[in-house]
Design brief:
four-stranded antiparallel sheet; mainly beta; single chain; 3 helices
């Protein structure tokens, strides 16, 4: 690996992978939704705007604002870096959608229930709960700031009336319980109605406390805090299929946790060399198998994927399978190692395939074939001639995510200029769509976009030289069973649904 090919390359790589990050500033921004329905392929259903004006929610019917933590609803006319969405995740049923941002906040949206009058209006998502998950911290031993940015959110399957989710920043993972409360106890013997202790001498009779109805309140409480286990920045968390354990991965190690134990974790992968000057690769993403609790994969900055089996040994320093595509020597360049770094890895719902995303492509691997991917999709191959300028502005280090649809037949990933791409594995057709505040209105139908590389440009095409690299789709999510997608475009969240028949 030509990691130390020049001083700037090494400096940028260390900053991106192992260096401290600047703490984003700014106050929490307000929320707004725009609802629309109509005919077409993909229809704008909901949009979270940052910022917005005084109006909280613009809908046909007023939303019960009692569900919303009003301390987060402030009037701003600008968006700060703290408002940038850093992760998006549907829960296992698709009824809830959680987003995290660089300000350490988690916003949960709940899907509207179907009504008799409006049968096809179930694509709408309204604000359900908002809470501050992480706060900025300072590591006094290393003199480093730990930013509050939410790196990942993972839902746990619902076992009772409450919801549970994991959220993590660079160092600490938290388990949150989100529950509803519409009754309050009254009639305590030792306390008055305001909760103050009564004088025991004044208590002459005993009474049975009763539950009285109250306004619906959604509470988010931290149930577990898993800290002090990672030296480097956490880039992935994944819940195991046994629902008793989960793993967290940083740049050089992967730890296994039990949900009931917060002060101890088991190190299952450690790729840190004895001499850090010999470091040639870092871990970029990791995920458990959806059905086999002993199996997991992790990807590296060298473009390789390792499948590990925890039954072989306590420390999975030897992989079970090693997936790597041989590089064509004729295509070798200064940027080869950077663009081959895998930014995301996802098991298919069936568990048979693995999907990986590098800078230019999405690849699908069969677990039974290690030497090459069975499918390769070009996301934005027209940027191959722009790698030099993308390196200068650091865009070449952007980490794009990828997702499967519920049936594993379509994959989706993001690009620049607020474009996101969909690839149909059966028909081999692909489409480029745009999530833009300027072009998206309520009931708007998304129109396919095309990028012109050279020559004459058609009316509906956009030139590759006109792409805005500051607008990028890094984070996307797909409803587990329906054609509803969530796309995070910097500080805006767009929710689209497929045509309603």
């Amino acid at each position: 690996m030509v990691l130390l090919s020049n001083e700037r390359h090494y400096r940028v790589w260390i900053h991106r992978r192992l260096g401290p990050w600047c703490r984003p500033t700014g106050s929490p921004a307000p929320l707004s939704c725009e609802i629309g329905c109509g005919e077409g392929s993909w229809i704008l259903v909901c949009r979270l705007l940052v910022p917005t004006q005084v109006s909280l929610l613009s809908m046909e019917e007023d939303i019960d604002t009692r569900k919303i933590n009003n301390s987060f609803l402030r009037d701003h006319s600008y968006a700060t870096e703290a408002d940038i969405i850093s992760t998006v995740e549907f829960n296992h049923t698709g009824e809830l959608l959680a987003t995290g941002d660089k300000g350490g906040r988690v916003v949960i949206f709940q899907r509207e229930q179907e009504s008799k009058n409006q049968v096809h209006r179930r694509g709408e998502y309204n604000v359900y709960s908002t809470f501050q998950s992480h706060e900025p911290e300072f590591d006094y031993l290393k003199s480093l700031e730990i930013e509050e940015k939410i790196n990942k959110i993972r839902w746990l399957p619902q076992q009772n009336a409450a919801y549970f989710l994991l959220s993590t920043n660079d160092k600490t993972v938290k388990l949150w319980k989100v529950s509803e409360r519409d009754k309050r106890p009254e009639g305590y013997n030792l306390k008055d109605e305001e909760g103050r202790l009564r004088d025991p001498s004044t208590i002459t009779t005993l009474r049975v406390p009763v539950l009285r109805p109250m306004d619906l309140m959604v509470e988010a409480t931290p149930r577990r805090v898993f800290a002090n286990a990672h030296t480097y920045h956490i880039n992935s968390i994944s819940v195991n299929s046994d629902y008793e354990t989960y793993m967290s991965a940083d740049d050089l190690r992967i730890n296994l946790w039990n949900f009931e134990i917060t002060n101890q974790s088991f190190n299952i992968v450690d790729i840190k060399p004895a001499n850090m000057e010999e470091l040639t690769e870092v871990i970029t993403a990791a995920e458990f198998h959806p059905h086999h609790c002993n199996t997991f994969v992790y990807s590296s900055s060298k473009g390789t994927i390792r499948l590990c089996d925890m039954r072989t040994s306590a420390l999975c320093d030897r992989h079970t399978k090693f997936f790597e595509e041989p590089e064509d020597p004729s295509n070798r360049s200064f940027f080869s190692e950077i663009i081959s770094s895998i930014s995301d890895v996802k098991f298919s719902h069936s568990g048979r395939y693995i999907m990986t995303r590098d800078y230019l492509t999405v690849k699908v691997w069969d677990l039974n074939m290690e030497n090459r991917p069975i499918e390769t999709y070009q996301v934005h191959d027209y940027l191959r001639s722009k790698l030099c300028s993308l390196y200068e502005n650091d865009c070449i280090f952007d980490k794009f995510e990828c997702v499967w649809n519920g049936s594993d037949s379509v994959i989706m990933t993001g690009s620049y200029n607020n474009f996101f791409r969909m690839f149909d594995r059966n028909t081999k057709r692909d489409v480029t769509l745009e999530a833009s505040r300027e072009n998206s209105k309520p009931r708007a139908i998304l129109k396919p976009r095309k990028v012109c590389v050279g020559g004459k440009r058609r009316k509906d095409e956009i030139s590759v030289d006109s792409l805005d690299f500051s607008k990028k789709i890094l984070h996307t999510a797909w409803h587990p069973s329906e054609n509803i997608i969530a796309v995070a475009a910097t500080n805006n969240l767009y929710i689209f649904q497929d045509k309603v028949n």
